[in-house]
Amino acid sequence: MIKKKGEIQRRRIIVYYVLAIVLPCLILGILAFRGIKNDQALVEREQRRDLLEAGQQIIEETDTYLSSIENSLADLIDTATIPQEIIFNNSLLSRFSAQYQAVAGIFFISGGGVPSLLNNGLLYIPDHLLTVSHGAVSRSRHFTWERGWQFEFRKKDYQKALEYYQGILPNVTGAQSRGEILNAIARIQKKLKLDDEALETYDLIWNDYPHVFIQNKIPLGAVALVEKSLLHMERKDTIPALKTIHLLISQMQIPVWELGYSHYANFLSNIEEIIFRCERSTEEETICWLQRIWSSKDSLSLSEKHTEYLLAFLGNSDVILDDIEPGGGRNNCRRYKTSINGRSYLFSILAGNEYEQWGLIMDPGHLLNDTIRPLILNIAEQSNFCWEVTGLNGELLLKSAFIPEDTPPVYVMFPANLPSWTLTIYPGDSGLFVSLFRRGEGLFFYIFVAILIILAAGLFFTLQTVNHELHLSRMKSYFMSTVSHEFKSPLTSIRQMAEMLVRGRVPSPERQQKYYTTILQQSERLSHLIDNILDFSKMEEGQKTFRFERAKITAVVKDMVESFQKLTADEGFQISLDISEPLPDMVFDREAMEQVIHNLIDNACKYSDESRTIDVHLYPKGSRIVISVRDHGIGIRKEDQDKIFSRFYRAGEELSQTVKGSGIGLTIVKQIVEAHHGEVTVESSPGKGSIFNVILPGSQK
After folding, report:
1. Of the candidates 579, 572, 602, the residue with the CA atom closest to the CA atom of residue 669
2. What per-residue string of b and e applies to 360-399 under the rule 16 or more CB within 10 Å gives b?
């Protein structure tokens, strides 16, 4: 019935809580949430506008950068020489191209509509466009070493051919002729297996005649390096061979020579052959040089792509000319886009007339990675957005480290005068919490958060209160039940014995005396129980008063022990008392201290189980006095030892069912001892009994 009443009380409190707090807060929360959503919509619109402006800023700054390059070239071409060759050289324009890395190439369109391309960083030139070396030897001068050719190629007399070339070399003065004769000498030395002499000759060619061309197209420097590396490989000198190949690759990458495609491909084939012959080596130094060569070759491959890119532009002049609009004035610059063999081109036509025009080819890779990427990163850091750049067919070109999912982006298309790219911008941290960080726009969010906190705190404290009240109610119910049993047992004994005495059913004087004694003992037990309840009530309300007097504690302890010895004699208890002298005087309340000792000995008797031995020890400890009560009973679990002094608490359910008690005895002991400025401790183990120590301060004289 009590439990049901408690449940009704709990439900009533929760209903009141829902009606008074939850419903109003819920209504306000819905309104606040709608306000947040409205704020969010406004923020998202403003954010999209900001993102569009950021995208336009990126495009404008990219266009401004390209325009600055075009204007710089427009100022420069007034002094530039009109090209006379399809692939031409111009040191002034080469320096300009090196200054602006976004420039992939510079071209010129003559009045006849024939484009010419600046040779700036081309690894090779189509064979039919290769310029004949100005240092070439005329056919009329070949008679000076004609006999050497007869010895070498017709008669196969390599020794005489070598002697002949070595004989005429001192009389030859021109670099071209000397270079060709030295190449012939090295070639014959190689045929005669004179590897050391051949290596020395190729070293001489490389050091003194690297820019001499044979057959008007093949540079002696490149030939010397290839032949040196092959000779080293024949001698199994792997490291010198790889060093020579590494040097050749670096010279081709600069490039040092103007190579035709066929000769470039031939040199590259020789390089790959030597690399292949060394790849299986396990020597650490060889592996190290191979890694260097592979790295240089990767860079060479990038330069190859750049060369192919420019030559494809030159080789498709019809596509270019179809896109170009004639005329436009000296200060006009127009930018175009086209596609050749699947590659996109962005080029500018500037500062010319309808007959002659200069042009710029932009490098899309550099423009993307070294111009647009830094611009995006800089603006993204300020505006807090994620991004990606895609090509014409949707291929991913660049992106930020993180791309959010399920977030609607803003698309910014690059205009017609820039590459066909799309900038996709994703807003940064957004949603319900963005208003928290925006000045003047977070009112609804704060209201919503405050409502949630109020609801959570109110629910928590309400449940805490309900649970606390129910716990107290259960404790009080248990206390009333226990006390009722405690009262009922002695009252029943008193009533039965008194009834028998009144009706004269106890004829023997000895038996009558025993009944009187039992009635007295049960009365004292009731009196002590009532005193405990009254004292507990006063202590709980803070109304308990003590009468402190200076006296000896010994007499109180003796009286209580003797009293219990008489009371428990019939039950077989042996209660011993050990007093260690001398004991100092104390200032204490006699009745309160009697109650402390009574409760401790009474507990010892209750929880002694089958043991009937209780030891009481009174002894000094420095300036303090210790009253120790020890039993040899069931003991107390460690986890219960800190709780046994709490009101109504009883250690272990099994004890509550077999041992009578109110659960306030030790609570009273602790409160009385603390009122005397002392402390009470317990030492116990299950099955080994318990020791309760009351430590009280002695009186200062």
Report:
1. 602
2. bbbbbeebbeebbeebbeebbeebebbbbbbeeeeeebee
Residue from 115, 143, 140 nearest 129 by CA: 115
Helix (H) or strand (E) holding 336: strand 333-340
CATH 1.25.40 corresponds to the domain 133-216: yes
Please name every residue paired with 209 in a beta bridge, in sequence order, or none if there are none. none
Alpha helix (H) residue ranges in 635-700:
653-658, 665-675
Q: Does domain 546-697 have CATH number 3.30.479.30?
A: no
Pair 145, 165: CB distance under 8 Å = yes
Tell me the one-letter amino acid at 70. E
Q: What is the pLDDT of residues 609-649, one digit of tens each?
A: 888 889 999 999 888 899 999 998 888 888 777 777 776 66
* Region for residue 422 given its phi and psi (left: phi exceeds 0; alpha: psi -120 to 50; beta: otherwise): beta
Distance between first and last Cα of the chain: 59
Q: Token pair for residue 648?
A: 């109504």
3-state SS, residue 209: coil
Report how far residue 508's alpha carbon sits from residue 514's, in angstroms, rounded to the nearest whole number. 10
C-alpha R_g of the chain: 55
Task: Please give the structure tokens belonging to residue 662.
Answer: 């109110």
Q: Omega into 126 within 30° of 0, i.e. cis? A: no
Exposed e or buried b per residue across 615-649, where buried means at least 16 C-beta atoms within 10 angstroms of its C-beta: bbbbeeeeeebbbbbbbbbbbbeeebbeebbebbb
User: Identical fold at 2-75+367-427 and 546-697?
Assistant: no
pLDDT digits (tens, 9 = 90+) for 570-585: 788 888 999 888 888 8
Residue with tokens 């042996």: 574
Element (H, E) at 576: strand 574-579
CB 175 within 8 A of CB 187: no
For the four alpha carbons of 605, 606, 612 and 617, in that order, the dihedral sign comes to negative
- Helices 195-208, 220-234: crossing angle, 10 deg rounding: 150
With contact defined as beta carbons under 8 Å apart, do 200 and 191 qualify?
no
C-alpha 524 chain-centroid distance: 74
Q: Which CATH architecture has domain 2-75+367-427?
A: 2-Layer Sandwich (3.30)
Alpha helices in 503-584 (DSSP H): 509-541, 554-567
Domain-by-domain residue ranges, the chain? 2-75+367-427, 133-216, 546-697
Q: 10 Å Cβ neighbour count for 285?
A: 11
The number of C-alpha atoms within 13 Å of 478 and in the hemisphere containing its C-beta is: 18
pLDDT tens for each residue of 115-172 = 999 998 899 999 888 866 544 444 545 666 678 888 888 899 999 999 999 999 998 8
pLDDT tens figures, 200-242: 999 999 999 999 998 778 999 999 999 999 999 999 999 999 9
Rounded distance between C-alpha atoms, residue 694 and residue 691, angstroms: 10
Q: In this structure, is the dihedral angle defined by the CA atoms of residues 280, 281, 282 and 285, taken in order, positive or negative? A: negative
Task: Give the integer Cα–Cα distance in Å for 300 and 121.
Answer: 11
CB neighbour class for 151 (10 Å; exposed up to 12, middle 13-18, buried from 19) = buried
